[in-house]
Automatic annotation (TrEMBL):
It comes from Candidatus Gottesmanbacteria bacterium GW2011_GWA2_47_9. This is Uncharacterized protein.
Length: 178
């Protein structure tokens, strides 16, 4: 695995340490280390295209932040899904208790944009129809391209889930009053 906890902070919290949920990042880091979750990246578009799209998109009212940069990331994600997989994408639809920024119409691919709660990775991967979950962070000044950070189920995903459930059950039984 070639990813650090600081990398995860940059992916999900745009590098802003005050907003970071370290406990959730720690859990994701452990899952990556144990091959329960896989990680890879794909370059999307040159950063200049992000600024071009930002100037063209309309700002709308909706769930969560909908400023021009966020809307541009969603538009780029939708275009990329169509170009790569020929699937239509929908934005902010209710899915597995959340409203992902972009989701393929068949629910196989989920993309969050900008600052994102990393716990959504596991929530969406628990759905057997989901192939992968990704995030597109806001670009940093030294970025040349926008990068899609893709997380999928690894070979140890089921065992990792089982271990988490058993640990929770054991803790509950230990402290539960009879």
């Amino acid at each position: 695995m070639n990813i650090t906890q600081d990398d995860l902070r940059n992916i999900f919290f745009s590098g802003y340490p005050a907003a970071t949920s370290w406990d959730i990042l720690d859990e994701l880091f452990i899952a990556l280390d144990r091959d329960a979750i896989t990680y890879r990246t794909e370059q999307l578009v040159p950063k200049d295209e992000f600024y071009t799209v930002s100037n063209l998109v309309a700002v709308i009212d909706g769930l969560g932040p909908q400023e021009k940069g966020h809307m541009a990331l969603k538009e780029i994600a939708k275009r990329w899904l169509w170009k790569r997989y020929q699937v239509k994408a929908i934005c902010e639809t209710y899915f597995n208790g959340l409203h992902p920024d972009v989701c393929s119409a068949d629910n196989r691919f989920v993309i969050e944009c900008g600052t994102t709660d990393p716990s959504c990775i596991q929530i969406f991967l628990n759905d057997p129809n989901v192939v992968w979950v990704a995030n597109i962070p806001y670009p940093f000044s030294d970025d040349i391209h926008l990068t899609l950070h893709i997380f999928g189920r690894g070979p140890n995903y089921v065992n990792w889930q089982r271990e988490k459930i058993n640990a929770t059950r054991d803790a509950f039984q230990k402290f539960h009053r009879k």
